[in-house]
Amino acid sequence: MGMNTNDLKIFEAVEATGSFTKAAKAMFTVQSNVTARIKSLEEEFGAPLFLRSSRKVELTPEGHILMKYCKQIGLLIEEAKVNIQHGSKVIGNLKIGCIETTMALKVPETLRHFEEKYPDVELEFSSAMRSALIDRVLNYELDAAFVSGPINNSGLDQLSIREEQLVLISAAEGPSLKHLLAKEPLKIVVFGEGCIFRARLEAWLSSKGIVHYKSTVLNSIEGIINFVEAGVGISLLPEEVITSYYAGRKISKHGLNRELGTMNTLLISRKNETRSAALSAFMGMYQ
């Protein structure tokens, strides 16, 4: 009896739950069946797929390789079902990732355009930090993501979307930027660790020899704008965010040099993979 797709689902369940018992529960079967199916897969591939310790079951290096193919097989089967049932109609669902500011600025417009053209595709957006977005695309949790370049990863395809200008912002009614930078410690208002804008701001400060500063961490653009306007500290955001949404606010913008003041947005997806019709359609909007 050879391998079937259910064996691969059992294999994925063991990895997801970290246990044969929990995998059996999740797959509505008995533990002895899970053990037998995994043993059969290990014989088929001629390699151990899991390291079994008293605490947890973990993938071996060979298990990791198979998991990558498992995800691809799962996607191909879904794609086959869609194509057989719906012919050339672009249908399905897409998970797209982006950073917080793209979420606020570009997503509504992208969504509207795409839904007009492809009403049968369900688009799901989620925001995260850049490094998390890259990992989630590589781990099949996202189909594609908008991230800032450059990216050196041989497993990813990159499509250049646009170039954005970043600006420093401070309270229009407070002291001048020069005066603020001379104060100890300087106060900055930023997103959490791993945020591209925070990293650029910190790089700019270190280029000015400023190493001591106090950070106020927030998780929304609205919050950052409010705090900067109130004089809590300075920040850095895409200029377009300010001009499009916060033009009436009491905020001063300050330009940066080209290296720190320019951000290239890329759309990344997995390389060497058959793209679904829905993903091809989405990427086609930017090509």
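Second entry:
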Amino acid sequence: MSTARLEALRLVGADGGPLRVDIRSGARPGEVRPVVVICHGFKGFKDWGFFPRVAERLAWAGFTAVSFNFSGSGVGDDGESFDELERWGHQTPSGDLADVGTVVDFLAGRGAEWFGLFGHSRGGGLAVLHAARDSRVRSLVTWAAVSHFLRWPVEDLRRWRAEGKIDVVNTRTGQVLAIYTDTLDDCEAHSEGTLDVLAAAARIRIPWLIVHGQADETVPHLEAQQLHGASTPGCVELALAHAAGHTFGVRHPWAGSTPEFDSVLDRTVRFFAAALR
């Protein structure tokens, strides 16, 4: 569908390791297009399921679409395998937030002037945080965004602290992935400061589209309503997708689209087109 060129490059991530970035654009030499930076969620990565389709569609619609793996994503050079286990284990939301800033700063250094942010799940919460503090960001779309980052039950948090790690099962691969206390420490230290998503939502003054499935089994749609309630009236649209789940019916590896995904993607592209022109 798209005639976009794909440029793959590496920046330096928050942990000092590689930050793998894909840039898709159909821009002519010297043409400056609005940029949309795409932020994946927890256990996600830039090549998961719908992210390449979102990027291609945005590039086809006249944007420069930029996707990347957070430095703590755990996914290495093959783009699929969770093989950077130490990086995964030491991930933090603050590190992820720094990665967003690194990508935006790099693109601004190459001449980009208008930015939109797109974030799914945990990436949605991070997009809210960054948009609230960066005046270069002119629009925001979040899908199934979290309203907070420390999402484990109290008993799990106690065990995590006592044992020095907590295991997360990747249902796709069957891998058991250990997260150390870096994340726990980070959330406990900054949940009422730089990682306070709801407080950041209250500072948003740009067009923001909140999309959430009413049948989301991972992040309850109540969190979308909380974000909407915390936001500035007149800036934000709330779109609840009836019967849609956390990934709008899309799986990895990509096995085709769904009506729910097509609908929210169409609305997302129209929203950015109106907000970034």
